[in-house]
Design brief:
279 residues; mainly beta; 10-stranded mixed sheet; disordered N terminus
């Protein structure tokens, strides 16, 4: 009880966003700076219901209380009436029941054979994918069966966590996957990934300008070989241990980060280090 009060006191010094369920129970809260970047948060949204069914949480109403923004949330079953099954294992979000612009937390289970996500529309017209810009999304939990990551999966959103199971069979983190996801705090890289892509400021780099990103972790038995140009350039990265399997690190890959310790182990097999990779 003392710990809870301490957490609430920390964020109540400035206006906070507080999420409560339909019964008024607080589930989650956060404080943000003048640029809408989340600076602290506590709590979480349950991934499943009492029967173990995957849940999506979304905002149903907003009010103000003592200068704080109060958001009421409700949950629906992730793979029930809100998703349509397409061909080849693809699941497409339907907006008839829940508009994706109001979703705050979505958990995709790993026992449904999902290989592709088409996070469609989200209330946006003329788009065949979910543009997260301006959405309420805070947490994304991806399934272990996913074979391709959607581009810009959390860009322009408030997403703090994008969880990828270590056994997810993807090979590439694309150069626009997490590009400028400025609220993202932590991410884990699946063991099967061989390339964290990066090219240029204009063409994209996987974690370029993820200014809140502090920690990146990797699964066991890593296969990562290449970290591309500018891959983590201008991120807020503090903690990372680069897998020993990495052979190539591109130019400016980790420049203008906030690394605290050396990211290499004594068993590193690095062969090529690009100009100002850590400059």
């Amino acid at each position: 009880m003392v710990m809870l009060l301490a957490c609430v006191f920390v964020i109540s010094a400035s206006a906070a966003s507080i999420y409560r369920d339909q019964d008024g129970n607080e589930l989650f809260n956060y404080a943000a700076d003048s640029s809408s970047i989340i600076t602290s948060y506590t709590g979480s949204f349950p991934k499943t219901d009492a029967q173990g069914n995957a849940l999506t949480w979304y905002v149903t109403g907003t009010s103000t209380e003592n200068g704080n923004t109060i958001k009421t949330v409700a949950s629906v079953l992730t793979l029930d009436e809100n998703y349509a099954t397409l061909t080849d294992g693809t699941y497409s979000y339907k907006t008839s029941t829940v508009n994706t612009k109001n979703v705050v937390s979505v958990y995709f289970p790993s026992d449904k054979g999902i290989t592709t996500l088409n996070l469609a529309d989200g209330g946006y017209k003329n788009k065949n994918y979910w543009d997260p810009t301006g959405t309420e999304i805070l947490f994304v939990y991806l399934p272990a069966t996913l074979t391709t990551l959607p581009d810009r999966i959390v860009q322009g959103s408030k997403a703090l966590v994008c969880e990828m199971p270590s056994e997810m069979p993807i090979e590439t983190i694309s150069k626009v996957c997490f590009y400028e996801a400025k609220c993202l705090r932590e991410v884990n890289i699946p063991s099967s990934v061989t390339l964290i892509d990066g090219e240029s400021v204009n063409d994209g780099a996987a974690f370029y300008n993820t200014t809140s990103l502090e920690r990146v972790t990797f699964g066991s038995n890593d296969n990562l070989e290449t970290i591309g140009n500018l891959a983590f350039h201008k991120s807020g990265l503090k903690y990372i241990t680069i897998p020993d399997s990495v052979k190539t690190i591109g130019e400016h890959a980790f420049s203008y980060t906030q690394l605290i310790d050396s990211p290499f182990t004594e068993k590193s097999r690095l062969e090529s280090l690009g100009g100002r990779a850590f400059g």
